[in-house]
Predict the structure.
Amino acid sequence: MRKIETELKDAYIIEPQVFEDDRGWFLETYSAKKLSDLGIDTVFVQDNHSKSKTKGILRGLHFQTDPLAQTKLVRCTKGSIIDVIVDLRRGSPTYKKWLKIELSAENFKQLYIPQGFAHGFLTLSDDVEVQYKVDRLYSKPHDRCLRFDDPELGIEWGILDPQLSQKDREAPLLKDCDYNFIYKGERQ
């Protein structure tokens, strides 16, 4: 397992070691010990699995506010997506900056998203499945979302008219959102 730094402070790409032969492949998708050896000591408490039927579905940008903010470890297990995260931690050296990465069933990459980030993804193919771990359970009172096309963020999704849920269509702009994240230095 390999940890790759990204442009966003405390967010990482995780590349598992894939063992392939003529029969197929095998990999460890999660190892608490291997992540700990890489300096990631997050204790995950729940696995989530989503399915999107068609290309062009955009889910996000979603997050939970403190004190129930979530760290996520995201991977695409069928099809492919553009995964986007935004640093919402006031005081962070990468505050309001975003990162876009392709995750797919073929590239096996995972994205480690620390607390204080908004997260969303756009399906690049039909019949997409995304699985992710979280370190805190879902809390409706702390659930928030942001407009995917907020001009203040300027995220380049590569699509003008994605399929959105009602919740995501009605999402507020960042300036109208009540997020409460504060950057706490090198280790969150």
